[in-house]
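ARCHIVE CARD
Drawer: 12
Card no.: 0347
Subject: one protein chain, sequence and derived structure
Cross-reference: see card 0346
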Amino acid sequence: MVNVTSKTGFLLMGFSDERKLQILHVVLFLLTYLLALTGNLLIIIVITLDHRLYSPMYYFLKHLSLLDLCFISVTVPQSIANSILDIGFISLGQCVLQVFFFIALASSEVAILTVMSYDRYVAICRPLLYETIMEQRACRYAVLAVWVAGGLSGLMHTAVNFSIPLCGDRIIHQFFCDIPQMLKLACSHTFINEIAMAAFTTSTAFACLISIVFSYVQIFSAVLRMPSADGRTKVFSTCLPHLFVVTFFLSTTGFEFLRPPSDSQSAVDLMFSIFYTVIPPTLNPVIYSLRNKAMKAALTKVLSREEISQRIMHLKVMFRL
């Protein structure tokens, strides 16, 4: 038994102490992780290889898939390893890195979803100015800002969170180093710095939400004025998946981080943590690929025997050179 009262790390309680349930957790999480890994990698590969998808919308989608891939890799592999080894110990260094990358990637995901909504707004409501506004350099700067903003948010949260003194056994009732659960271990409830940081993060997320809502109000107003039913269908096929992803991710994350803290563990905590850490990265590739004809056509082309044979021949020629 790991001495969790020491300052060397934390004990993650996970889902259950029963070995059968731990094995079930491993199987389910492993299958989910492999599905997310495969789906997001396919989107990245397809958008990179198919020149027909060289547009801002798919450029942002590729970075969303990269964020999803990294986001689910921060928590799920560690949880699987803990269940296999029947230990819940995570070192202080691992916990610091997990909190940093978790916050950084979650913040970047909110930012990229906001950028994607603005891209759809310009494409539908300002089509004549689309190529000017969403030109290649602007898209690159937007993605760079997304990653930098996420990194800064992760640094600030990590620095503030681990500067708070902790008391008692370092037991976290989660399958990863979750900030709301870690704050329950604080020696005092007067952690002003963390409250200020939470207020800053909440206001930033709320600003992103307002921007997304404004974009989609304008988009749906424009769609309803379209005389062509085919045009409306095309717009809905690209906008509705994005709107679903935004709503699901922000609502589940907001519920977990904004609700009043509780001293006892509940199934609701674990359920909602899965909703915003595991489900979105797994479902996003399915949602975007199934609702998008261009993505389905590109995926079929990339996975076709002829295309695979051409890629293999090309690689053989490259290695011969």
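Annotation on reverse: The beta strands are 9-12, 89-91, 171-172. Residues 9-320 form a domain with the Rhopdopsin 7-helix transmembrane proteins fold (CATH 1.20.1070.10).
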